[in-house]
UniProtKB/TrEMBL annotation:
<keyword id="KW-0853">WD repeat</keyword>
<dbReference type="GO" id="GO:0010606">
    <property type="term" value="P:positive regulation of cytoplasmic mRNA processing body assembly"/>
</dbReference>
<dbReference type="GO" id="GO:0006397">
    <property type="term" value="P:mRNA processing"/>
</dbReference>
<comment type="subunit">
    <text>Forms a heterotrimer with an asymmetric homodimer of the regulatory subunit PAN3 to form the poly(A)-nuclease (PAN) deadenylation complex. Interacts with PAN3 isoform 1/Pan3L and isoform 3/Pan3S. Interacts with ZFP36.</text>
</comment>
<dbReference type="InterPro" id="IPR036322">
    <property type="entry name" value="WD40_repeat_dom_sf"/>
</dbReference>
<keyword id="KW-0269">Exonuclease</keyword>
<keyword id="KW-0479">Metal-binding</keyword>
<dbReference type="InterPro" id="IPR048841">
    <property type="entry name" value="PAN2_N"/>
</dbReference>
<dbReference type="InterPro" id="IPR028881">
    <property type="entry name" value="PAN2_UCH_dom"/>
</dbReference>
<dbReference type="Pfam" id="PF20770">
    <property type="entry name" value="PAN2_N"/>
</dbReference>
<dbReference type="InterPro" id="IPR028889">
    <property type="entry name" value="USP"/>
</dbReference>
<dbReference type="GO" id="GO:0000289">
    <property type="term" value="P:nuclear-transcribed mRNA poly(A) tail shortening"/>
</dbReference>
<keyword id="KW-0540">Nuclease</keyword>
<dbReference type="InterPro" id="IPR036397">
    <property type="entry name" value="RNaseH_sf"/>
</dbReference>
<dbReference type="InterPro" id="IPR030843">
    <property type="entry name" value="PAN2"/>
</dbReference>
<feature type="binding site">
    <location>
        <position position="1087"/>
    </location>
    <ligand>
        <name>a divalent metal cation</name>
    </ligand>
</feature>
<dbReference type="InterPro" id="IPR013520">
    <property type="entry name" value="Ribonucl_H"/>
</dbReference>
Amino acid sequence: MNFEGLDPGLAEYAPAMHSALDPVLDAHLNPSLLQNVELDPEGVALEALPAQESVHIMEGVYSELHSVVADVGAPVSGSHFDLHEELLWVGSHGGHATSFFGPTLERYSSFQVNGSDDIRQIQSLENGILFLTKNNLKYMARGGLIIFDYLLDESEDMHSLLLTESSTLLVGGLQNHVLEIDLNTVQETQKYAVETPGVTIMRQTNRFFFCGHTSGKVSLRDLRTFKVEHEFDAFSGSLSDFDVHGNLLATCGFSSRLTGLACDRFLKVYDLRMMRAITPLQVHVDPAFLRFIPTYTSRLAIISQSGQCQFCEPTGLANPADIFHVNPVGPLLMTFDVSASKQALAFGDSEGCVHLWTDSPEPSFNPYSRETEFALPCVVDSLPPLDWSQDLLPLSLIPVPLTTDTLLSDWPAANSAPAPRRAPPVDAEILRTMKKVGFIGYAPNPRTRLRNQIPYRLKESDSEFDSFSQVTESPVGREEEPHLHMVSKKYRKVTIKYSKLGLEDFDFKHYNKTLFAGLEPHIPNAYCNCMIQVLYFLEPVRCLIQNHLCQKEFCLACELGFLFHMLDLSRGDPCQGSNFLRAFRTIPEASALGLILADSDEASGKGNLARLIQRWNRFILTQLHQDLQELEVPQAYRGAGGSSFCSSGDSVIGQLFSCEMENCSLCRCGSETVRASSTLLFTLSYPEGSDGDKTGKNCDFAQVLKRSICLEQNTQAWCDNCEKYQPTIQTRNIRHLPDILVINCEVNSLKEADFWRMQAEVAFKMAIKKHSGEISKNKEFALADWKELGRPEGMLLCPSIEELKNVWLPFSIQMKMTKNKGLDVCNWTDGDEMQWGPAGAEEARGVHVYDLMATVVHVLDSRAGGSLVAHIKVGETYHQRKEGVTHQQWYLFNDFLIEPIDKHEAVQFDMNWKVPAILYYIKRNLNSKYNLNIKNPIEASVLLAEASLARKQRKTHTTFIPLMLNEMPQVGDLVGLDAEFVTLNEEEAELRSDGTKSTIKPSQMSVARITCVRGQGPNEGIPFIDDYISTQEQVVDYLTQYSGIKPGDLDAKISSKHLTTLKSTYLKLRFLIDIGVKFVGHGLQKDFRVINLMVPKDQVLDTVYLFHMPRKRMISLRFLAWYFLDLKIQGETHDSIEDARTALQLYRKYLELSKNGTEPESFHKVLKGLYEKGRKMDWKVPEPEGQTSPKNAAVFSSVLAL
């Protein structure tokens, strides 16, 4: 409400607010209202005013029901009926808030909101109440606890707020803008400029925002853009109040007269269909407030400050007989509000009293109010003190409540429903074989379940062996796609939700509560994330790869080593394999094998991910084997190959994965040919006719594995003796077993899936029979104590039914080479170790035990396109490094979702949605056979001078001076860093129906230029790295305005820049990180993310955060340089040398202003002045009078002299 033109007597209320603390009552206060109100010595009311005992209310006619004192002597500045509970909220000019419950106006809560400013508007939400003061927005619980306190700028003068959505708020005042605040993040999201300043009243319909201005105008604004659509010039003086209902807009206000402003007795009414004024409505009171009260008709309530209230129709004539009088204690009415049910009116006067008028004896404030929670009476003061220092003091001094009352645990019958244990359906096999004698049936036990163990099911829809117990509540589209309920939520494809802040506000911790690092999935061809994790958690592979370094530009082993290093450094934050996948896309063999997916195929899930990941598995092992076989070590990377892993004959990948074989080909003429070969993995070969065999024949996994390794098949082959192609019998024998056994499952059709399903069912029945027989033999065990049998200290280890379902894969297998070059394979259990001795003793006799380490599965989900996840058994060394504990645990890795799981879940495959793809078995005590030390292969020589890839060497302009040997950085040295980027793929986004934009996939950036400048010494500010990064991928946008990169700068044929490979510059930055330097820059988080580097937080000094206040906007480097350094940078384009040097100077300025961080309060004042200046200038740097190149700076004289 606008208070201009009100009664001059209001000027007396400010001092009256202070005089209210005097015990003497105000002269305007009616003593009859305070006859039962107790005043403390300070004069503050303690109890609400009781209503008169006999109040006659005529049904349908508004009459006064109750009057109470909210705050004695302090004028009421705001009143509001709670939209969720039966509460009336009142705010005073002294910043105090009081709530009253129900029509009897019993005082519910009372607390101070602001110490000096008045409460200007109140808004109720589901969990609390919003209070708006001059420059403060406070959200408090109904009991008075603060939920958040949002401090606006001191120059703001706010008057109105409007809740547009459940979590979005508009705040307006006397300034020339309206703020949009997100209540979830408590941050300012938008600032809408207002052409006519002074927005003191705001309303909303389904078509417009309505803003009332102090100039007497009402503007209608678009709901999405907040732009003005229409404007009504209602009054020449000022606007007092307005309301909207249906197609009518009614306003009241003040008109300009010769003597000043005068209250206008004509209400201006507008038709929103025609957007024009209709006949003004003349009333018989001086209107200060008006509201539509649409009960039977669209009635208008017009209230004057003196207490007169008149009802009339907005399109009719006002009748003087419809006037009634409110008797305020003070001379003026200050506030007016109508309840949501239209049954109650609330008036607040200038003496702190509230008057409730209703049209029924027992009104309700809302049509459907929830129950209000009342505080319990405090009984602590009535209890005797208990001295805990006295050991002999009896605890019985504290009385225990009597048990004669109903306890909380005594649930009434109305709140509880019986849930009996329903009997499971009788097995069909029992019904088929049953023989009846009279009314009793007899049948043999089919032994399909454990004895005396019945699954506890409460829902009829749950079947007896329902394996989908981990269903999330009612997923979308379950009716259309019933298969979705099979897939557990943690196995579904995870996606990153992008907001206006990108990834900054995405909660990765919700998906990963461990200290292991996940991998982000939005990069092209990131389907291999699960296999990268499998290779990382193989300790010999991890150490071997990180010790490798070569000169090849696109070496998968090098890039995988860099990625493993990031996974080592991360403490739960996700990493991205962008550089590894960039190198992967350049390998010709990968493209020839169809491993490079198009973005459309990857998004739609057109490719068969199971076949794809199995081909990728074979490719990556072969590629790593070839990369590590190259013994040539470049001079620039001397010492990198001196790892204890390497041998002269074969790579360590070959030692770990390779299996030596003899391939024998026997022709029917008797000629036999034997060739030696090796393989890095095996593919399962299933028995013929397995799809037609429905008898449930048992076939151990070990038998299928032996058949697949020692494969025997009939094929056509060339016979040298017959000199033609002949039918031959080809067999394969094993010479040497690998340390890591890799198996591709090849479940690519319904035939193989049925085989797995059938074998799992047979294994389940056999396990039930086995454990049932073991129980029957041990009579000393009570069947009721079945749960004790699953414990390690029990005599028997009997898993539950859930752990036995869908299991065919063993956790361990035993393999032994026979004397006649044969191979024996069998399943190995923990009981075998007790019988045959430990695996180490057996290995001395040629028996090897392999333990399951990882399974990669294909999750079938047609709606999301399917996904690949991995179950990995993480070893002791990884837990020791990350968590400081020594144990082994199975985990589920689903991109950036990591969750510990039970070991049986790793071998349970429900072929309806969870299909096995890859298995990794490792020899026991594998780590003891290899040297697991990691020696950093990156040496200081990478920082020395190197040749440019650009062919136009004579035209190359030197922009940096490489480091000399005496300038090598030390721990804690400062290095200024800046990077520029180009766009490889544009952002993919969709426009919602409400006009907001949702980012589906962010733009893919690639680093184009990296600059590092010296941060100390005589050459401080001079670059020692200024590399342009050559790229072979197509650039869709060079972003020249922001990056300074032009077409041709990254092309070695025509570029005149110092062009290098990404790997070369990456090694320089890795060396700087490993040596412990501190990087200074602006927005380094994004730079390191695109470069794909993991930098410890204590090595990053980002000026974005140094010059930032909480819950305020980030400030650009250009504005900071102008404000603190009086420099005008980034005129036409950005220059990374200029930006890096400016960031260094800003950091020096920060140390100077904050006294090296010892005076944060003084620096806070500096930041406050910075933000005030920024708002005044709209964060824009004034244009320079004369454009000067940053290269004219004196610090570059030595560089240009080159």
